[in-house]
Amino acid sequence: MSNMLKFGIPKGSLENATVELFKKSGWQVSISSRSYFPGIDDSEMTCKLIRPQEMGRYVERATIDAGIAGRDWVSENQSDVVEVCEMVYSKVSRRPARWVLVANGDSNVKGPEDLAGATIATELVGFTKRYFSERNIPVNVEFSWGATEAKVVDGLCDAIVEVTETGSTIKANGLRIVCELMESVPVLIANKASWADPWKREKIEQIATLLKSSLAAENMVGLKMNAPGDKVEAITSVLPSLKNATVSHLYNSDWLSIESVMSEKEVRRVIPELIKLGAEGIIEYPLNKII
Amino acid sequence: MSNMLKFGIPKGSLENATVELFKKSGWQVSISSRSYFPGIDDSEMTCKLIRPQEMGRYVERATIDAGIAGRDWVSENQSDVVEVCEMVYSKVSRRPARWVLVANGDSNVKGPEDLAGATIATELVGFTKRYFSERNIPVNVEFSWGATEAKVVDGLCDAIVEVTETGSTIKANGLRIVCELMESVPVLIANKASWADPWKREKIEQIATLLKSSLAAENMVGLKMNAPGDKVEAITSVLPSLKNATVSHLYNSDWLSIESVMSEKEVRRVIPELIKLGAEGIIEYPLNKII
Amino acid sequence: MSNMLKFGIPKGSLENATVELFKKSGWQVSISSRSYFPGIDDSEMTCKLIRPQEMGRYVERATIDAGIAGRDWVSENQSDVVEVCEMVYSKVSRRPARWVLVANGDSNVKGPEDLAGATIATELVGFTKRYFSERNIPVNVEFSWGATEAKVVDGLCDAIVEVTETGSTIKANGLRIVCELMESVPVLIANKASWADPWKREKIEQIATLLKSSLAAENMVGLKMNAPGDKVEAITSVLPSLKNATVSHLYNSDWLSIESVMSEKEVRRVIPELIKLGAEGIIEYPLNKII
Amino acid sequence: MSNMLKFGIPKGSLENATVELFKKSGWQVSISSRSYFPGIDDSEMTCKLIRPQEMGRYVERATIDAGIAGRDWVSENQSDVVEVCEMVYSKVSRRPARWVLVANGDSNVKGPEDLAGATIATELVGFTKRYFSERNIPVNVEFSWGATEAKVVDGLCDAIVEVTETGSTIKANGLRIVCELMESVPVLIANKASWADPWKREKIEQIATLLKSSLAAENMVGLKMNAPGDKVEAITSVLPSLKNATVSHLYNSDWLSIESVMSEKEVRRVIPELIKLGAEGIIEYPLNKII
Amino acid sequence: MSNMLKFGIPKGSLENATVELFKKSGWQVSISSRSYFPGIDDSEMTCKLIRPQEMGRYVERATIDAGIAGRDWVSENQSDVVEVCEMVYSKVSRRPARWVLVANGDSNVKGPEDLAGATIATELVGFTKRYFSERNIPVNVEFSWGATEAKVVDGLCDAIVEVTETGSTIKANGLRIVCELMESVPVLIANKASWADPWKREKIEQIATLLKSSLAAENMVGLKMNAPGDKVEAITSVLPSLKNATVSHLYNSDWLSIESVMSEKEVRRVIPELIKLGAEGIIEYPLNKII
Amino acid sequence: MSNMLKFGIPKGSLENATVELFKKSGWQVSISSRSYFPGIDDSEMTCKLIRPQEMGRYVERATIDAGIAGRDWVSENQSDVVEVCEMVYSKVSRRPARWVLVANGDSNVKGPEDLAGATIATELVGFTKRYFSERNIPVNVEFSWGATEAKVVDGLCDAIVEVTETGSTIKANGLRIVCELMESVPVLIANKASWADPWKREKIEQIATLLKSSLAAENMVGLKMNAPGDKVEAITSVLPSLKNATVSHLYNSDWLSIESVMSEKEVRRVIPELIKLGAEGIIEYPLNKII
Question: Which residues form a coiled coil (chains A, B, C, D, E, F)?
């Protein structure tokens, strides 16, 4: 169908964050437990919920035109697709996912080389095999159907390659990270033919722009204050240089209004300084998007 | 009691949305599971929780001065009240409620006329009787105590008249919408004597204005950007014409600040154009009310 | 450790509100069910979760430098600490906690003096003993391990001293408030030595300023509108005088933009007047902080 | 269809108890949230879930052959059906449902006669009208769509006729029972033609026998013990006379085994006496059915 | 370790049923959310929770001595293990799991042969490939990471091979079962060396006997009654012949006590007959095990 | 009041187990969230829900006649009451509660003597003070308001005295049990005057007998089988000697029926032997009470 873009929402751990991100970007995606088809309020798009593990396969095959999934799975399947951009979900709890090599807390494994001859369980069989084979370490890699951490706790294998954000589940199970093998962030990928189609490419780029504007606004706020004319320079100099402050005259007065955008963390530092410099009527307000 | 307005909050499907709407409009309504009386932080108002089916009855009788309920139930009871305004809860999931005629998916019913002699179950007995009688189709309409869809599935009746938003529950049960009989939206209704009392009328109008301002702001956002003076006209011409943009000078510069209000959907269209036209420092911020 | 502030988050009824308050103030505090240590995204701070009953003890002893707890418990333990400021969680549901003397609904107790010789159960044993002893009323005060209301219902004691916000639980149990003994609000307290240390004091004051800015913004909103030049005076005179309105020229026009901050309740009153005075394009937007 | 019985399970408050009762009686009824049709593992029966308010209507009309519903609703609708037997769900929490006349706790209503001219809200409009009309008390009875207790609390009506088991919800709302108007128990009802059909009647009677056997076994247990021959008479005389005890010889001994059935409450009384009389090896075991 | 049996509990859909089955058989298995190791109150056993998909692998490799898993997965992996016995979880809701070929409800697929050239998604890749290859039907079988039904709904593949008990989820999604490919029941499997070890084999057989005794007792009950001597033959002839009835003399009487075991369904048939034949004091009691 | 016994149910961790135990013993105790008074279906008893920490206080003072609480708390308060009997809740998960001395996992504390001068937090202040003072170890014991484990993790104190069943929470927090200070089981205690009153004492003893009979039946089952006359001696010799087996003649046969009571664990051992010895028709049935 021409002028219709088929987009893949990643099912599972990124699902809610992606729906929320679309919402902030102006699209209502509705996922119902009664239906596998997510709805979207854009007559030029349809959505499908797709496992991250399979996103690359379906984008490559043009079942969908574009979609979001972790780079780990896109590369695991060695899918032949276009990577449009990274989508760094920047909230504190959204550190990059790290694939790590994990052994029992009391084992003697110091590095990958200590695992020659061992059995390693993982969901990421292809990547793990390539990783050890590139280092000429002979290992037996086998597919794990989930609960992978339990396997090394239980002695069902010698080590695992598992994904983690903070490492806390691993520690809580008495396991130990031997080393990190790969970091992964979500990426927006597109089918090659779709990317070559001008209408589809513009649509994909529109989506990418708006999603990234919403991500950029996470943890960012607007700060607005009034200041006497002779303090404006001092005040603007303590504001973060991310964007130039917007300064405008006030009516019947030599005061000015100053407005700027910064992260919540910078606000913590800036406000005590602004007070000292004589800014008044300081207010902070929330932002939806920063372009 | 003079200078005290008694207001009816609709119990049930509109209850939470109404409480949230009052909150956005500046009133805290607190509904406790321990008490039937909702509290409200306005010394000139008291609230009662009332079933939509009975709202008209109690407003007509002056038990309460005004209230919100679906127009379907107000008209079912043919209550003699003033309809002050519609309250279109505009979120995507809040399409108008539709009362539809529903038959089994595999029945031969093509229209109301195919139901002559049939038994029809519904909660809206009065409306349904009037509908069929106006068309001279003899039917047996009987009151259904809920789970109305089950009745036609189970063969307990030939068809039903039931309310739906999206039709998905009906389809999921293997039923089929024959035709739509009525669309209904929530309305704010007032007792006739209360409406004639100047103080009460002003109070009711204040409530109506603020609730509508909050509804108008749903899915709307503010967009602010800086632009060189010679681009202002081009930029303002791509902004939706809902409200004129607010344009002001920036300090010590020939740039201007442009600020406008639009729906989230328009933002999707507008932002790529603004970037092309040279707007900078574009930010989007949320709104509570638009008057 | 120098340049490191140890801060106590109150466990229990104020816990979520405090974490949310820090979030609004620019700090992410993460409390995990797997760990007793809340994390905080500030390299100059560590947090501990501490019962309000024990906060004074640990601040006094310098186990932590500062913390938030109800003034009731700080004074119960007669802890020797600095009270930096009150933290009035101002939302409607956050009235000051009141410690009240409670008896059975049908008892004859009119005032504390009617309880001579009686047994009184309470969690606040020290305060209650001092209260009755100052009034020369001999009573037997005993520590209650919770479910204190049940004790007077059950006849296990003659009266209780219990904390309440609205009194509704007390009434629901058929009990009666005899009189109020003390009102309590949360306070930010600091260890005396920490307060004397310049770096720690500045850090504590930074926290206090930002938390109070966030509290000040609760239930407050920004209102922005355009007005013809000759209406500005009339319009600004109906705005609440909390902060001066910010007024600025519009481009190529004799209209002005007016912006002000007020409580949601004032908005209810002001908007009908602004409309009458000719204001246009009125929008209301949310605030995070007011300094 | 011949040799097929259509049976109505009451939807709502009796639903789970009825399904459990069928289970104890040897039938697996499966109610799925995905389907309106309950399944049953008996090739001679089909089930439907039907509101108690409508059970009489559908049995009378032969839509179903038989069903269980409260006698209150069967009589409200004055359905022309056969009442096969009462089904007294005997667990402690299953007291007969009582329809009571309820007024505000502080009203002066002493009896029905004090309500002349009043408005009474109830779900049981027909019964209530007949009740007051038989006593020549003119009242305005109106249908209540639920939350009936709230109506008298809220002053929407003068009194209500409502169903209750223990009266505790009524008391908790500050209301008062004026008097009881009717007691209701579940009944098994049958269509008149179905009852006249020999095969259907035998099937209905089989169901009635087994359901009643299961109900009879609720709170009943079996008690078994050994006793010397000369104590048998004394022991059997303290056992409840509900059923004769089963006494049998033991092998190579002059001891006897005694076995009897009684309620759990009688066990509390009997066991201390049995110990005194020299019974040994006393065990208590659970029962499923007593015929 | 000698005299220690390592046993695999299947994680997932059979997990709770298996724990409950061990409980009925006299073993307390405790699965904690804090630990991957289930505990068991038998000093001769340890347990591990293992995915059914991997059970065969770990039993074959002697990581565990024995375990329970569906025969589908044991055969998928072509594990070289001993199948000790079937474990037919006989409750109504536990029909054998069926692997079925599923296509869209409105497709033209009538049998496997209509799928030549198609893409089939399944978790059971090995079995599916063998199935089609034995029939010389060329298909592309690909591994599905779950939500397999969604794939055919969504058009991501042409057909799926999926497991189902009742087919109701398939129907609810608008899909259609083309044909059944395999039925699967849980089996108890053992490692070959463990089975050759006399102590381990005896232990495995003890477990098998007790688990099967508990399964045999599901839906079975004991029935006990008294009867006059001349009715015993008639009565015992209507009892199911599963086990001989136990008949014993009553003390000082020519009545006899008759006791037998049967399924709950047979009780429905038998009780009306027993009453007609003069049996008295009929009671039904629950059973834990039948050997 | 004469002939009325006031009984205390322990609120909290033993609450549900106690209510269930009373239910098995023939008393329905109903605890409602709307009321502090548990109901009981015995016209000679009333119940109160009381914290274990306060049970001794109220029994000593005759506010109640008897109650159940942990011996730890009865002795903490040094209440002057009669201990009627232990109530060993024997289910696997109900090991005796142990009060243990706990330090950080990596501390050097080997025994109580290493804590001279330390601060110890505990809910059991009196016992802990006595324990250390008897050993002449000077420590600072302070009352902990809950979350005691967090205190030693957080460094708020040097060690804690805390209750545990399995030690797993302690280990999960990285703490270490230094030694056990006391084991505690629930006890049934009585007021001294109540115990001296013949009617009350008999009532208390009746309760004690029935509760203990129910506890004795936990994890116990009945086993029944038929055997040829010449195998009876061999068979009864393998049965546990807890109670003599009940053996009776079968009608018109030289077989005998054998019935015995044993624990579920013994059944695991016994059944394979019974099969070898020729027993037939073995069934196992559940028990409610063993006296």
Answer: none
Q: Is beta strand F140-143 parallel, antiparallel or unpaired with respect to F119-122? A: parallel
The interface pTM score, or ipTM, of the predicted complex is 0.84
Closest CA to F145 of A171, B287, C49: C49
Q: Give mean pLDDT, residues B72-99.
A: 82
- The residue written with tokens 């794990």 in the block is A144
Candidates B73, B225, B263, B245; CA nearest to B163 is B73
Q: What is the 3-state composition of chain C as percent helix, strand, coil, each rounded to the nearest 5?
A: 35, 30, 35
Q: Which residues of E touch D244 (CB under 8 A)?
A: 226, 281
| Class at the top of the CATH hierarchy for domain A220-286 | alpha beta
pLDDT at F95: 66
Question: Quick one: which H or E segment has residue B39?
Answer: strand B39-40
When scoring A9, A15, A36, A119 by the number of chain E Cβ atoms within 10 A, the one with the most, hence best to mutate, is: A36
Instruction: Measure the CA–CA gap between A147 and E11, rounded to whole angstroms.
Output: 10
Within the 215-244 window of chain D, which residues sit less than 8 Å (CB to CB) from chain E?
Answer: 217, 222, 232, 243-244
Distance from CA of B76 to the nearest CA of C (A): 34
Q: Give yes or no on whether E5-91+185-217 and E97-184 have one common fold.
A: yes
pLDDT(D36) > 70: no
With 0-12 CB in 10 A as exposed, 13-18 as middle and 19+ as buried, what is C129? middle
| Residue C241's pLDDT band (cuts 50, 70, 90) | low
Across the interface, whether the CB atoms of B285 and A290 are under 8 A apart is answered no
Q: What is the mean pLDDT of residues F168-173?
A: 78
Confidence of residue D92 (pLDDT cuts 50, 70, 90): very low
Counting beta carbons within 10 angstroms of the beta carbon of residue E32, is it exposed (0 to 12), middle (13 to 18) or buried (19 or more)? exposed
Confidence check: pLDDT of C99 > 90? yes
Position B15, amino acid: E
Q: Is C63 an interface residue toward F (CB < 8 Å)?
A: yes
Taking each helix axis from N to C end, the angle separating D198-217 and E264-276, rounded to the nearest 10 degrees, works out to 100
SS3 for A34?
coil
A21 CB neighbour count, 10 Å cutoff? 22
Low-confidence ranges of chain A (pLDDT < 50): 92-93
- From the list A243, A248, A290, the residue facing B257 with the nearest CB is A248
Q: Which residues of F touch C153 (CB under 8 A)?
A: 36-37
Q: Helix, strand, or coil here: E223?
A: strand
Residue F208 near chain D (CB below 8 Å): no
* DSSP secondary structure code for residue F17 in this structure: H
Q: What average pLDDT does the segment E116-143 reach?
A: 95
CATH superfamily of B5-91+185-217: Periplasmic binding protein-like II (3.40.190.10)
Smallest CA–CA separation between B197 and chain A, in Å?
Answer: 41
φ, ψ dihedrals at F277, nearest 5°: -80, 0
Q: Would you state the structure tokens that stand for residue D26, as one six-digit string?
A: 């040897």
User: What is chain F's alpha carbon radius of gyration, rounded to the nearest angstrom?
Assistant: 24
Domain ranges for chain A = 5-91+185-217, 97-184, 220-286
Any E CB within 8 A of A150 CB: yes
Q: How far is CA A25 from the centre of its chain?
A: 15
Neighbours of D (≥3 Cβ pairs closer than 8 A)?
A: B, E, F
Position F92 scores a pLDDT of 41
Q: In the structure, what pLDDT confidence band is assigned to residue F262 with cuts at 50, 70 and 90? A: very high
**How many C-beta atoms lie closer than 10 Å to residue E83's C-beta?**
12
3-state secondary structure of E202: helix
> If one looks up domain F97-184 in CATH, what number appears?
3.40.190.10
Query: Which tens digits make up the pLDDT trace of B112-133?
Result: 999 999 999 999 999 999 999 9
CB contact under 8 A, C285 and B287: yes
Tokens of E4: 């220690």
Kindly determine whether residue D284 and residue F288, on different chains, have CB atoms separated by under 8 Å.
yes
